[in-house]
Design a protein that fits this description.
Blueprint (H helix, E strand, L loop, with lengths): L7 E5 L3 H14 L3 E5 L10 H4 L17 E5 L4 H10 L5 E5 L11 E4 L11 E3 L16 E6 L10 H18 L2 E6 L5 H7 L6 H6 L1 E7 L3 H9 L4 E4 L7 H12 L2 H9 L9 H10 L4 E2 L15 H18 L3
Parallel strand pairs: 1-2, 1-3, 3-4, 4-5, 5-6, 7-8, 7-9, 9-10, 10-11
Length: about 325
């Protein structure tokens, strides 16, 4: 009989894009995966530095047998995952997607995204695009599909921004001789959805009907979904908000020496403000997307894909652990 495949727990939060990425990673690994809802309580907003490795913020109950690997996205799963590793006697490996909001050394592998600008560390893999994948029917599209997100600090996304995006998207559709189909998300404010003329179209069906796709610049997951269809994608840029806290955070980030920023990130004392233009600029520079309202790109390159490299890094973690602690 062959050796049993490593076991995986996915800590699933309330963000659909994060959950989708974790499932894509689990499918690519090909190991048995159990999904566990991140049931948190009123302590969930306590900083992770104070929570440490604990279940103080969790309403879920965890019991052995402990998994070989725990994967989660974002901040709230970090104390829980660290507790699971401690309960396993240190055997369980931890992989965080995004930002752990804790000392980076407390996690075996952090998969950072461009908008989070992770510190350069040996246990950080700087991916170029989220791992979202949308399987869509390959048919001739007859729409410009506008995927609309919503306010996402530190970006501004109000009526004025929506009005500009709507006008530019209609101009694009007219120029291409296509219909415009607007699809809102659950984050889209009702006033913006109504002003843009959003429909109740199914998300996947809308992507299947697209000849081109426009995505508002607040959502990295929707950008990755759109690019995975193989259709031409344009980003609808959004400005930074003028809110005082946003301005302060961005000002500090710009003023501090890069070495100090990396050191405080690594210690879990500071995470850089989310910077979606970093993602747009990289995709634009690579010829992967166009910019709504801008010049048509001279070429369209396939989207960057770091999934297989990530899978290889995770497999290496488990292999190393098996060699260190043989049965």
């Amino acid at each position: 009989m062959g050796e049993a495949a490593p076991s995986v727990w996915l800590l699933i939060g309330d963000k659909a894009g994060d959950a989708a990425q974790l499932r894509v990673l689990a499918d690519a690994l090909g190991w048995p995966a159990r999904e566990i809802a991140l049931e948190t309580n009123r302590w969930r907003d306590v900083p992770n530095l104070l929570l440490g490795a604990s279940l103080l913020s969790s309403r879920a109950v965890f019991a052995p047998p402990w998994p070989d690997l725990v994967m989660w996205a974002g901040r709230r799963g970090t104390p829980i995952a660290r507790w699971i590793r401690r309960a396993s006697g240190g055997r369980t490996r931890l992989v965080n997607l995004g930002r752990p909001w804790a000392p980076y050394g407390a996690v075996n592998l952090v998969i950072g995204m461009p908008q989070y600008r992770p510190p350069p560390r040996s246990n950080v893999l700087a991916a170029r695009l989220p791992f979202n994948r949308r399987r869509v029917e390959r048919r001739s599209g007859d729409h410009v599909v506008l995927l609309v997100g919503g306010p996402a600090p530190p970006l501004a996304f109000g009526i004025a921004e929506a009005r500009r995006i709507g006008a530019d998207a209609r101009s694009l559709a007219t120029r291409e001789g296509l219909k415009l189909l607007v699809v809102a998300s659950r984050r889209t404010p009702r006033a913006i959805a109504e002003m843009l003329g959003a429909t109740d179209a199914d998300y996947g069906e809308a992507l299947s009907s697209a000849a081109r796709i426009v995505v508002t610049g607040d959502s990295a997951s929707m950008i990755a979904d759109a690019l995975s269809t193989g259709r031409p994608v344009d980003i609808a840029p959004l400005p930074f908000a003028r809110a005082p806290l946003s301005l302060l955070a961005r000002g500090l980030d710009a003023a501090l020496p890069r070495a100090l920023v990396s050191a405080t990130q690594s210690l879990g004392l500071w995470e850089r403000p989310r910077d979606m233009p970093s993602l747009w600029r990289a995709l634009l520079a690579g010829g992967h997307v166009g910019l709504l309202g801008g010049a048509e790109p001279s070429h369209r390159a396939p989207p960057p894909d770091d999934l297989m490299e990530t899978v290889a890094r995770i497999r290496a973690l488990i292999l190393k652990q098996t060699e260190t602690n043989p049965l």
